[in-house]
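Methods: example folding runs. The two proteins below were folded one after another, and each record is reproduced exactly as written to the output file, sequence line first and structure-token line second.
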Amino acid sequence: MRRTYTHEQKLQYLRDGYEFVRSGNGTYQAYIAKVGVSRAAYYQWIQKHADEAGIPARGRRKSS
């Protein structure tokens, strides 16, 4: 069954994931597995909402 998340939940997961990795508790993949969000969805959220969540978006840059 597909789960939907509110915008506020997405931002909170992004902030919590960033703090989880930054504090040395593990990787993003470990955090994603812990909270039960799909990897694809989480990384899409990073691309869309990183600025709003106040976290750095790393990885590929979109071509202009």
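Second run, written to the same file directly after the first:
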Amino acid sequence: MKLKRKLKKTSIGRGVNIVPWIERLNYFNDYFRGEGYTLQTEIIEMNDSIIVMKGKVFNAEQVMVADGVAHKKTNEPFSFQKCQSGALNRALFILGIVDSGEDSIMDEDEAKELQRNKATSGSQIYESMLAYVSVDYNAVEKRIPANKSILTSEQIKELKTLINAEKSKKAIAQASK
């Protein structure tokens, strides 16, 4: 399906852009509601720990044309609302309300969680690289390009400074032999 207008994206940091749920919903309201399309959600499971919902899109003949499932932990704030919007967001994605650059679907909360996980992972990798510089700076230097997407520019600069210091120590030690 070719969209009638470009979808607005929002940046969630580190170069990741997503189409917010509300933008997808606005597009649906602008171009599908008038043609008789409707949205509906169904609770698939709800207990003390999790809520699972299915979002559904129906055409004018009330035939389901797309659906999507989402889940949230029930102890999260606004878990019911977030689960409902997540399920509908996925259903609208499946319907074809998609930006050309999107290859997967996530809502703003999932995107923030992904960024937190990447930051945590980047921090752990940085700490292990930092500790290993004095053991084998060549190995650390070779790992920098592979980890460039999860290390900050400050972390890379610090690693390179420490690597250069280790190279200098080695050169001085060899020169004094």
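Comment on the second run: The chain has five helices and five strands.
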